Amino acid sequence: MKSKAILNKVKMRTPSILGSEEFAKYAILLPLIEKEGDIHVLFEVRSQNMRRQPGEICFPGGRIDPQDKSEQDTAIRETIEELGIEKSDIHDVFPLDYIVSPFGMMVYAYAGFIQSGAQFDPNPSEVESFFTVPLAFFLEIKPKVYRINFDVQPEESFPYNLIAGGENYNWRTRTLDEYFYIYEDKVIWGLTARILSHFVEIIR
């Protein structure tokens, strides 16, 4: 292969995250709504019939479909489907940082407003209920953060003989910080709490 052909291949590329084509990609919306003169954050409680994380508190969102024009369109579509509101009820949607999780997921997060007069009709197959928390609460209260450590466990056929150190190789262990907010009887944790904390730091 000639150098010109190599350069043409390289310079025409748009860089991305290596291996990201194999990641499951999701988009979520952090919904803000005005209530009684204050800004609130809206949360969903996942249906007990959901296969993954039933009963947990989350933001509306879901997997990116091929027909979605953008990650933002996914976040808006999922919010409409889950909360049963109109597209015109959602406005001023802006991107937050996206997250690459250690579990093979990419999550694109957005924050946006829902009209205070919106009529909600939640999809019962996905949403058991929804509630709001004053944004001021999160501005005043810092989340509790707990660390999870992951052990490295190579499969039985791993070729130790091909690496320096063999079975005594000094693997770098991976850690994950889990965030928790507790509001009255509600526990908001995990990815939802992490995205919420990120949003609060942006606006603080």
Written overview of the protein:
It comes from Planomicrobium soli. This is 8-oxo-dGTP pyrophosphatase MutT (NUDIX family). InterPro entries: CoAse (IPR045121), NUDIX_hydrolase-like_dom_sf (IPR015797), NUDIX_hydrolase_dom (IPR000086). Its cofactor is Mn(2+); Mg(2+). It is a single chain. The chain is of the alpha+beta class. The chain has a single domain, classed as Nucleoside Triphosphate Pyrophosphohydrolase. It contains 4 helices and 11 strands. The N and C termini lie far apart (54 Å).
Give me a quick take on this structure.
This is 8-oxo-dGTP pyrophosphatase MutT (NUDIX family). Residues 23-156 form the Nudix hydrolase domain. The protein is an alpha+beta fold and 204 residues long.
CATH top level label: Alpha Beta
E-strand count: 11
Question: Low-confidence segments, ≥5 residues, pLDDT <50?
Answer: none
- Average pLDDT, rounded to a whole number, is 93
Question: How many DSSP helices?
Answer: 4
Terminal residue distance: 54 Å
How much of the sequence is in beta strands? Answer: 35-45%
